[in-house]
Every structure is written in C-alpha cells, then in structure tokens.
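User: Predict the structure for this protein chain, please.
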Amino acid sequence: MPGAAPTRSDAWDLLCRYTLGDGLRKHALAVEAAMRSYAERAGEDADAWGVCGLIHDFDYERWPDASGHPVEGSRILAELAWPDGIITAVLGHADYSGVARETAMARTLYAVDELCGLLMAVAYVKPGRSLAEVDVRSVRKKMKDKAFARSVSREDIVRGAEELGLDLDEHIGFCLAALQRSSEALGL
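Assistant: Here is the predicted structure, written as structure tokens:
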C-alpha cells in the first residue's frame, strides 16, 4: 500500500487484524456508513471518508484507554504510510488527544462516532431489533436517560453537531438514515 491511497479492503483487513469483537466491527461499519453519507452530501471523497470511519477505532480492543487509543493506532497507520488527513482525523476523534479537528473529515468523524453508538443501542432495544423502528424522537428520549448506553457521551454528540453547524435533530436524522441504508450489514 505505500504510495497508494488505502482501499476499503485495506481498511477492513486492518480492522479485522486488530479487532476480533463483532460489536466493535459493527460500530466501525456504522461509522463508515455515516461518514460516506456525509462525504457524498459535501461533495467530498466518500471512499476516503468511509475508510477513515472504518478504521477509526481499530486499535481500541488492544489499547482501550486514553494512554493507548487512538495514539497507538495512529502510530500504526503512520508506519503503514496512511494519509496524514486520515491519521489526524483518527487522533482528533478523541478530545483527550489534544489534536484539533481542522478538516471537514475530522469534524465529521467526531460528530458521528458517539452518535452511531447511540443509534445502534436504541435499535437493539426495539422489539424487532431494527433500525427501521428508530426515529429521531426515540433517540432524543434515550439521550435523556443517562443509564441507557451510559458509555456513550451525550456531550460529544451535541458538540459534534455544533462543530458541523447542524441542528441536533437534523444530525441525528441524517446519521439514522445512513445507518438504515446499511442495516443489513449492521444486522439491524
């Protein structure tokens, strides 16, 4: 891959090499879907944005705390000669990294990461375990329930929409629609 842009296949192989859990792989697929949709909406490179979404947490199983993730992953990406824009976006999706989100790709990755986790959690508690049963109102209701999906940062979701300059309901609806289009791959 040195010298060439990473492909989706490269990203999937890297994700699967480091991530064995189905849940984290599905989260990566959800973030990929949201990233691709936002890229298409903005007239950006949907393949590059999708790849960024797919690998953003590839190191999380091995280094699940702030001292490792996403720093270890970004080090690996640099060794593999991945584009700086993707590496910087991956670093920037964690506030504690101190890396500024200066590009649309970086801001979008931050904005969709936690939201995708919440959207999938809401789908899991629906009677049919389906994204088709989820709507913006039900997501907003679950956001208020601090015991529900407690590891999902509501503050990051709100800040992400603000960084994109979007109304929160619009952002939730847009991401939800992206995930609904990918529901078969997500198993929801």
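The two ends are 33 Å apart (CA to CA).
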